Amino acid sequence: MREYLNSILQGDCIARMREIPSASVDAVFADPPYNLQLGEKTLYRPEDQTAARAVRDEWDCFESDEAYERFTRDWLSECRRVLKPAGAMWVIGSYHNIFKLGALMQDAGFWILNDIIWVKTNPMPNFRGTRFTNAHETLLWATPEKTGKYTFNYDTLKKLNGGKQMRSDWHIDICLGAERLKDKEGKTLHSTQKPAELLRRVILSSTRKGDVILDPFFGTGTTGAVAKELGRNFIGIEQSHEYIHAAQRRLDAVRSVDLSSIEVAAKREEIKIAFKELIDAGLLKTGQTLVGAKGDRVMITRDAQLQHTLLGKASIHVMAARLQRCAAFNGWDYWSAEKRNGDLVPIDEIRKYARSVRTGMKKAA
């Protein structure tokens, strides 16, 4: 397996994947042929009647829909074999093929977790004016089987999204300008090159530092470039020597980034600290006042509950939910402790301090 890491394998994706050991890959990002079947049709821009670049590459041509289905079943089967049971499977497509891809993924045993809509903020127009402008593509995120165990870096995505939960509609520009690779004549090298920002979200959402990401349709190497940037390993498979050469030059220029400024440790992986432990450690005291985000005032009781003059006694979570009239709420995010001088300290900050002390004690041991 080690000989494949951070390299581009030249050849047919199905044949080359058969060389990779089973259950050895943490994630797959697949951007397969769309099977557009455009033939010799030429699209012209209405404003000046110049020809527009369309996907007519040889790799997107199949004898029939049945041949495309056979090809898809075969590469999906190999992806599922090489993926670890809790691995991430990402597939992207347009309306031409995504519904077929989704059905075949389910037939192959994949468990679909989400569909993501990549909203293209600067899409190519519908030149003929006969349909809606196609302004999105769909990504399917799945696992090889329904285990309930998979990587999802919720807190990192929340940070990327300005402190709000990341939604399933991603507004990202299509690949243009300096990011778009060109051939020797200055023309677009690859007709379906994906923007790096799209891959950043994919990789940051469902992999960890050091994970191995396989891209069976490597193209000009966006997956590999972003994987290297984010401290992940990659395996690329590509048939075209031209694409491989361009991808390798691109990879050679990539430098890794400081992940500490991007990634956030998952809260579920942190040391658990109960509210009562803060009281036992003397960081909070019985009878002390807690103040809610809306100014609500409660008192800490001897049994580590909160006492409200009207709502009675409850835990930090239940009391926060009652005051906001909702089914559930994280009390760590709602309450602050009132100090003698009137200052307020979020109880989550006190918990972080307690966690750091315990972590230091573990390291010393």
Structural class estimated from helices and strands: alpha/beta
pLDDT averaged residue by residue: 89
In the predicted model, the low-confidence regions spanning at least 5 consecutive residues are 42-52
Q: Using DSSP, what is the number of strands?
A: 14
Could you tell me how far the N terminus lies from the C terminus, measured between alpha carbons in angstroms?
Answer: 36 Å
Number of helical segments with 4 or more residues: 10
Instruction: Give the ordered list of helices and strands.
Output: EHEHEHEEHEHEHEHHEEEEHEEH
- The geometry reads as elongated
What composes the largest sheet? 8 strands, mixed
CA gyration radius, whole angstroms: 26 Å
Features:
single chain, 365 residues, alpha/beta, eight-stranded mixed sheet, six-stranded antiparallel sheet, 10 helices, 14 strands
Concise synopsis of the structure shown:
This protein has 10 helices and 14 strands. It is α/β, with parallel strands linked by helices and 365 residues long. It is elongated.
How would you describe the overall organization of this protein?
With 365 residues, the chain is an alpha/beta fold. The chain contains ten helices and 14 strands. Strand 13 and strand 14 form a beta hairpin. The longest helix has 18 residues.
